[in-house]
Amino acid sequence: MDGSFDSWQPAGWLRHEALLAPYAQRASSSRGREHPEPEHPYRSPFARDRDRIVHSAAFRRLSGKMQVFTGEMGDYHRTRLTHTLEVSGLARTMAGALGLNESLVEVLALMHDLGHPPFGHTGEQALDRVLCDEGGFNHNRQTLRIVDRLERRWLPVPGLNLSREVLDGQRCRAEKHRAGPAPSLEVQVVDAADSVAYDTHDADDALVLGLITLDDLLETRLWSAASQRFRTRYAQPSDDELRRGVVHELINWQMTALLTATQSRIAAAGVDTPEAACQAGVLVAPDDELAELKLEFERYLFARVYRHHSLCTMRERVTAMIGELFARLLDDPDRLPREYREGESLPRAVADFLACQTDRSCEQLADALLGQRLG
Ligand code: MG
Fold first, then answer.
1. Separation of 28 CA from ligand 1 center, angstroms?
2. Is the predicted pLDDT of residue 303 greater than 90, yes or no?
């Protein structure tokens, strides 16, 4: 060993890629980056992309952005960052079980919520409203703007210069209802993991916050069945043990069912390349029975949790605050950092700036620019 990484060839990631399923995307077949870069001696292109996401300012800011519940409501529940890490873990598990590219799945999962503005979907809807004449605002499209233009590295090019497969994957998320081939299996896995994570964890968080009770959730067939499964193994759990046990059961059940249904669809479609997988339509999805239970559960969460009066009050306040901040910055653009202005319409630049704020820095901005918090 002469100390040069060249003597380590072939790189570990290349050996690992030889073991992937034939329908997995491979970094060794990557179409490269918009701005070509020399290959790294021991990190795959997708592993480099993952590191670029983790080292980005937008990723760090996820720790200050709410998922469903605000920071003022306690410190148990998920933030946008912990949700992202949970999605990444579930998605990697699925990718490993299906023989898909775990590095690609990981980067797609870690970037999937990067474009969320402060205050989750409330902030997104508020920005969408004020940008209605400019093409609107959507967090999936904003993720692309962040990685393509707004983030800066040490290179003299805008954005993170990610691999084309990664950008394509996020583009599929941003254009979900577009006709044509399905997204890659790696993208489908991230979507499925996201859904398992938020359904289960929003219920868990709502229970701990006291917005709903364990008995309330028994009204849904999904929770009720998971509860029965858990109780067959632990007869007399405490409420806390029951909550944790059912959450664990829900994740394990959904993941196993997803993998089983997906494997049989892949086999039935006979897909043997990444392109054939896309042509075969959506393959990563729960079976019909679980899909129906999940839909009922989501409707319940929408009515009883997302429309809970404590969240509705927050939503009204934040919508007004973001609308006021947007109008104020439009009137007084000198307050906008110069890097946001370059090559953008003023409304889009203001939205980019506001979307980059955390919940707290958005409140601080309102204190500074509006003089008072909107009650
Ligand atoms: Mg998500």
1. 28
2. yes
